[in-house]
Amino acid sequence: MLLGSSPLEAFLLSLFPAHDAFSLFVSVVTLPSVVQVFNGILLGCAVGISIPIGVLFLECIAALFSGSNDSFPRNHGRPSLDVVIPAYNEGEGMIPTLQTIQAQLYPGDRLIVVADNCDDDTAAVARTQGAIVLERHDPLQRGKGYALNYGLQELAEHPPEAVIIFDADATVHPGTIDHLARQTIALHRPIQALYLLYPPHNPPKPKDAISALAFTVKNWVRPQGLARLGFPCLLTGNGMAFPWDIIADAFLDRGNLVEDMQLAIDLAISGHLPMFTPQGKVTGFLPSEGRAAQSQRTRWEHGHLKTLQKQVWVLLKESLRQRRLELAAIALDLSIPPLALLVMVWAGCWVLSVSAGWLNHFWLPTLILGAAGGLLMVSVLTAWYQFCREIVSFRQLLAIPIYLVWKIPLYVKFLVRPQSEWVRTQRDTKEVARSSRS
Questions:
Q1: How many structural domains is the chain composed of?
Q2: Residue 247, SS3?
Q3: Residues 241-298: pLDDT tens digits?
Q4: Which of 87, 134, 199, 320 could link 204 by a cystine bridge, Cβ 3.0 to 4.6 Å?
Q5: What is the spatial distance between Cα 225 and Cα 131, in angstroms, rounded to a whole number?
Q6: Of all helices (H) and strands (E), which one includes residue 132?
Q7: CA distances from 51 to 45, 229, 319 (A)
Q8: Does residue 198 fall inside a structural domain?
Q9: Where are the beta strands (DSSP E) in 175-292?
Q10: Closest CA to 143 of 303, 335, 376, 26
């Protein structure tokens, strides 16, 4: 590299006289090495962030193609079925959920509520709605995974053929339970229904609208794209169906923040690949109270990032060891961080690459990130137009920068003190009731 061949070198060397020994050292050894290392790191970051963006683009485009996720033999009768709902201090707020489920049960089906560490009337309310109630009290082990594990242990004495799991604040749309039960037994694999959360306000606040868009991309667009490509999906925690012999052997007795995601990984590695179906539908509402919304997003996204850090490499290693492409597909899907963080990281890398290009004439990272940014924009706009424009207006999309600013403290907290304990999200009872009527 020639002396003063770039603005960066000229600036640094101007700080020292030409006869200075440090100037000679910088020009001959240090500066070229530092610049090359910096360029290499920046190029690695550009390629690294482009991989999950490319996977997101592929999933969003694949989701547009027609096809059926539900090709399974339909000569099977309705299996015996238990519906399990973990509940913590839900009270009367869970009545609409129980009613939407009871309306779909056949004689012999069982609705089971696991009242987990409750100190209110959740158990009594559930019994009034015809549910079998299992009460668990262990203040040291709190969370959905522990509750599910307790419930399944209680079912083991008289196990059903299939188990379906719902959250206590969900609306289960007609036909969902029958479809999930038949499909999980016919294919003998875990089945994930379409699970959506809508904005709590009508018309929604811009921040809530963007949250609903991000949730739709994660829970509908991406799983449908994977299904169109013939790959399995991750579980989303609500509207999950399992054959008994598969879920009975699953390890649930832990306080994972995203136990559904970890369960999907464990099952996939053991040979039971989850499958997405849009024919079963479960809906709810995002929290309307700001503190509850922040708590919910923190738990979800901190759990997602922790799982991403630990499990992507595990899945890739198992994919090579077992020679199974499906595990690599799950690893690539898991490598996509939360959408807001993906945009932030891309933007930060792009600014750095432009600055580096101006200072040392190395423009390759800028070109790569520019192409990745185009794919990211196409992915978001395609997902919005095809799947979400009825609840999120184009004008509300302009609030994405505000949404990103709102999310910054969440990601800073992950770097400083990531959440490690399960925290229940405060429910909006009126929104649950409204969901049951929609």
A1: 1
A2: helix
A3: 999 999 998 887 666 678 899 999 999 999 999 999 999 999 999 877 666 666 777 7
A4: 199
A5: 36
A6: strand 132-136
A7: 10, 18, 18
A8: yes
A9: 191-198, 240-243, 275-285
A10: 303
Distance of CA 323 to the CA centre of its chain: 26
**CA 293 – CA 285 distance, rounded (Å):** 11
Count the residues in the chain: 438
Structure tokens at 62: 């694949």
Residues 6+ apart with CB under 8 A from 310: none
Q: Which of 232, 222, 313 is nearest to 268 (CA)?
A: 232
Hunting for tokens 């009825």 — which residue is that? 390
Domain that holds residue 208: 81-290+424-437
Please give the structure tokens belonging to residue 3. 């002396």
The residues, any chain, with a CB within 8 Å of residue 406's CB and separated by 6 or more, are 207
Residue 5 covered by a domain: no
Residue 187's CB is within 10 A of a number of other CB atoms, namely 18
Alpha helices in 189-271 (DSSP H): 206-216, 222-228, 244-247, 259-269
For the sheet containing 191-198, what is the strand order? 132-136, 110-116, 81-87, 162-165, 240-243, 191-198, 275-285, 171-172
Q: Residue 7 phi/psi, 5° resolution? A: -60, -35
Q: Which two tokens mark 199?
A: 């904005």
CATH number, domain with residue 285:
3.90.550.10
pLDDT in tens, 69-127: 556 666 668 899 999 999 988 889 899 999 999 999 999 999 999 999 888 899 999 99
| The overall pTM is greater than 0.90 | no
